[in-house]
């Protein structure tokens, strides 16, 4: 192999590794937040690629020499990164979904604001839970596990133009679990507020002259914030369980990928 061919092969391998990491960082929480500049995300992907390059190079992966097959492998690598990043992002979706349920019951739905991180309308309780969960995950170095899980992807999904996902039912099951986990996370506060609605309804039947609309909204907000405050000691354990479930999804994705 000539020097030019050696340089071409190494550059091609670097681009393939970078493509997978860029796809993951584009969607993953914290790394892919809208407030993080694109150059910073690209620099992070390139830095990780430089660190991993000797490990991937030692495996001597097969890289197509022709242009179109090589482009197909690049697209496949970006797709792998996007799928992994999307699965990790679902942790955010669970927290936002639970916050949406709580906001709906507390009457905060009309007060939802634009989330500057992702540029979409986001519930206030969802933002609060997401910020708190992010602080917990970063303080416990859980983002290191995300990077380690991504590195492990090369053991299951090597740089190879022939490996494709095989279990498409897995993705439908994951979406169903996301809704289920969001309801479970928000149900303690949602259920308590539902009970308060029943209590206020009985009060309105007992005291018909009471202006129920001037009472129910302040009562629900105060009661909801009280329940939220009382549930904070258990929030860390809930986030840890969600993170473990999220990592199990990533592992199942690897195991179900046809090689």
3D architecture notes:
This protein is mostly helical and 259 residues long. It has one domain (3-255). Helix content is 76%, strand content 2%. Helix 1 packs across helix 2 (38-58) and helix 3 runs parallel beside helix 6 (169-206). It is elongated.
Entry keywords:
FliR; 2 strands; 7 helices; 259 residues; mainly alpha; single chain; two-stranded antiparallel ribbon; membrane; cilium
How many angstroms does the end-to-end distance come to? Answer: 28 Å
Number of domains: 1
- Report the helical percentage: over 70%
Largest sheet: 2 strands, antiparallel
- Spell the H/E element sequence: HHHEEHHHH
Instruction: Round the mean pLDDT to the nearest integer and report it.
Output: 82
Question: What class would the helix/strand composition place it in?
Answer: mainly alpha
Give the overall shape.
elongated
- Which residues sit in consecutive blocks of at least 5 with pLDDT less than 50? none
Strand content: under 5%
Task: Count the E strands.
Answer: 2
Summed up, the helix count is 7
Strand order of the largest sheet: 1-2
Specify Rg, calculated over alpha carbons: 23 Å
């Amino acid at each position: 192999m000539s020097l030019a061919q050696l340089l071409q092969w190494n550059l091609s391998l670097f681009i393939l590794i970078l493509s997978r990491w860029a796809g993951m960082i584009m969607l993953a929480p914290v790394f892919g937040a809208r407030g993080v500049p694109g150059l910073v995300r690209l620099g992070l992907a390139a830095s990780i690629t430089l660190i991993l390059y000797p490990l991937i190079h030692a495996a001597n992966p097969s890289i197509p020499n022709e242009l179109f097959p090589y482009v197909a492998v690049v697209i496949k690598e970006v797709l792998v990164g996007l799928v992994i990043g999307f699965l990790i992002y679902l942790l955010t979706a669970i927290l936002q979904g639970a916050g949406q349920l709580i906001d709906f019951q507390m009457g905060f739905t009309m007060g939802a604001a634009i989330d500057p991180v992702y540029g979409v309308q986001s519930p206030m309780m969802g933002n609060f839970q997401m910020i708190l969960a992010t602080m917990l995950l970063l303080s416990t170095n859980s983002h290191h596990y995300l990077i380690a899980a991504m590195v492990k992807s090369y053991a299951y999904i090597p740089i190879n133009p022939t490996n494709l996902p095989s279990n498409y039912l897995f993705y439908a099951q994951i979406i169903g679990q996301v809704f289920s986990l969001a309801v479970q996370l928000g149900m303690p506060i949602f259920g308590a507020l539902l009970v308060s609605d029943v209590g206020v309804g009985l009060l309105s039947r007992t005291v018909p002259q009471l202006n129920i609309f001037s009472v129910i909204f302040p009562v629900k907000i105060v009661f909801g914030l009280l329940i939220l405050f009382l549930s904070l000691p258990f929030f860390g354990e809930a986030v840890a369980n969600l993170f473990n479930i999220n990592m199990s999804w990533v592992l199942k994705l690897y195991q179900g990928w046809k090689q």
